[in-house]
Amino acid sequence: MTPGVGIWRCADCGTGFFPQRLLCARCHGASFEQDRVYEAVVEEVSVIRHMLGQSDWQPRRIASVHTSDGQRITVGLTDESGPGTVIELFEQDTAPFGAAKK
Ligand SMILES: [Zn+2]
């Protein structure tokens, strides 16, 4: 597990993006630096109860979150965090996850 979620930050104006973009939506710059965000607020939670072709699927919670840097990203939740909860972001096998801040 790696703390934080990787984002791409425009080298010209500093705006952070996730996922990666070819051009900065703000200044149209084309060079990015990798950065990480560590905290987000949960906005909406969905539960995936079934997955086609999987018989031993366990319900999974995914959340649309708003990071402290301004990106809106989708992460898997590893606990019962609901809307409004401040979560810590981390990556597992390159997939973004979050859990309530302790
Ligand atoms: Zn920019």
The proportion of residues in beta strands is over 45%
Mean pLDDT: 95
Our Rg estimate from Cα atoms comes to 15 Å
Distance between the termini: 17 Å
Sheet with the most strands: spatial strand order:
5-6-7-9-8
What structural class do the secondary elements suggest? mainly beta
Counted by DSSP, the helix tally is: 0
Bound molecules: zinc ion
Give the helices and strands as they follow along the chain. EEEEEEEEE
Segments where pLDDT lies below 50 for 5+ residues? Answer: none
Question: How many individual β-strands?
Answer: 9
Helix content: under 10%
Produce the secondary structure layout.
Blueprint: E1 2-3, E2 5-10, E3 16-17, E4 32-37, E5 39-48, E6 60-67, E7 72-77, E8 86-92, E9 95-100
Parallel strand pairs: 7-9
Antiparallel strand pairs: 1-8, 2-3, 2-4, 5-6, 5-8, 6-7, 8-9
Bound molecules: zinc ion (ZN).
Zinc ion (ZN) is lined by residues 10, 12-13, 15, 24, 26-27, 29.
Can you tell me about this structure?
- The protein has 102 residues and is mainly beta.
- The chain is built from no helices and 9 strands.
- The strands form 2 sheets. It has a 5-stranded mixed β-barrel.
- A hairpin with a 5-residue loop joins strand 2 and strand 3.
- The radius of gyration is 15 Å and the shape is globular.
- The mean pLDDT is 95.
- Bound molecules: zinc ion.
Jot down its keywords.
102 residues; 9 strands; 5-stranded mixed barrel; 52% strand; mainly beta; binds zinc ion; 3-stranded antiparallel beta sheet; globular
